[in-house]
Amino acid sequence: MRAVNRQPGRLGPIAAVLPFALALLVYALASNARLAENPNDKLLPSMSSIVDAVERVAFEPDRRSGEYLFWNDTGSSLRRLSIGVLAAAAIGLGIGVLNGLLPWFGAFGSPWVRALSMIPPLAILPILFIAFGIGELAKVMLIVLGTAPFLMRDVEQRVRELPREQLVKAQTLDASSWQIASRVVLPQVLPRLLDGVRLSLGAAWLFLIAAEAIASTDGLGYRIFLVRRYLAMDVILPYVAWITLLAFLLDYGLKRLNRALFPWYGV
Amino acid sequence: MSFIKVRNVWKRYPVVGARGAEKVVLENIRLEVQEREFVTIVGASGCGKTTFLRLLLGETTPCQGAIELAGEPLAAEPDANRGVVFQRYSVFPHLTALGNVLLGLELRSSRLLGRTFGAKRARNVEQAERMLDRVGLLSSAGAYASQLSGGMQQRLALAQTLVTAPRILLLDEPFGALDPGIRADMHELVSRLHEELALTVFMVTHDISEGFKLGTRLLVFDKPRVDPHEPDFYGATITFDLPVANDRQANAAAQALADSTHLPRKHDDR
Predict the structure, then answer these.
(1) A208 and A77 both lie in a single domain
(2) Do the domain assignments include residue A222?
(3) What is the pTM of this model?
(4) Which of A49, B27, B154, B246 pairs as cysteine with A45 (C-beta 3.0–4.6 A)?
């Protein structure tokens, strides 16, 4: 039988878990080997020391501040991420729909957005710190500037992809430009916007961690870059795994949300 | 005075990739159409049938000449005078069947929100449901348009267009993507609606038997002159304009005669 026709069938879930189990196993073996040679090795800490570190940061109050660092960091990071992504989505939706639907608006806005999206956001991070200070605003703005141009272009493209027939049809039903935007275009673009947000979440995390690493006093990215000084791999590794899990859950949640809110989408 | 008057209309398009070059699509179209005529338009592909329909729709404008509707020049953009059903994408996938028919009514009742509430909505829903019933879709009122089959979507498109009572109904190969059995059902439906609602219809089709079956008048678009060295120099025009005396028309006439002779004329209070 050809390879393209072979189906995993009931073995599918097992196949999905296997690479993860294999990675853990390889890590455990490598860690054991290093620790056998030098019990003070910090590069590949043993599973038990990772568990100890997680207990210390997540379930015991910090000796200096009395806060649970892990949850504190998670809250701060998720707050920045969600504010930034929500703002970017709102901007992306507004500008994208206007650019895609109104020819005159697009004539001005479309080339501008295309140029804007070519600016590497990290290159203007210093400008953000100068303009907005090193508080929350600069970090959120980095996420907004990093993801909004993509969302604006994506939404504009989705609007242009709507069949010409639908826009003509709406006009024959006496729809004004505003009604076409609000009753025909906007509801059809929203699920596509959610898809766009899912795709831009990776970039949003990147900019969040970059901003936290450079100027912050809490947050997941801050913590990772802080404990790097002590080579504390036993904290860095669970933090990275936690960020990965959060990103996965956000992506999955948005996917479910899309299906629940827009049952007609993708039928 | 004619209901629709097409006066010496020309349409040229720029040729893609050749700067300054133009392609004549339609040349010197002259046509007068009365109210309640069912005009079918046939012809080979690429001879301007759809372009002509788009001119009537206002989606594009003539390069020369003019089109008048009831003595007034036609608006240069699509409006509520002209309803349309395309071959595909005529319904809104994000609305239910009822929502699709309701849309035209709601857009009119509420210019700002495009939605109605309370008693106003109840009246609109009632009207929309009557129209859905008329095209046989009342039982699918709650289904999203994207879940309906191709034939049902075209029925829905008709209901959606007709609920706002346009003065002209434009059909662009509306049954081209349907299989034969369903197409016959749709023919029956369109004929019935044409009579019941006293519509003026233009229908583009590539199926000449469909043109004869449905129309009261059949137009053939063709290029009468072709220059083999300069194929874009001459455009298509109406080469045949045939009145179609079909059974449907004869039956309707006989029925009308019977009604007027045997029954007292009903008072029309509409």
Answers:
(1) yes
(2) yes
(3) 0.85
(4) A49
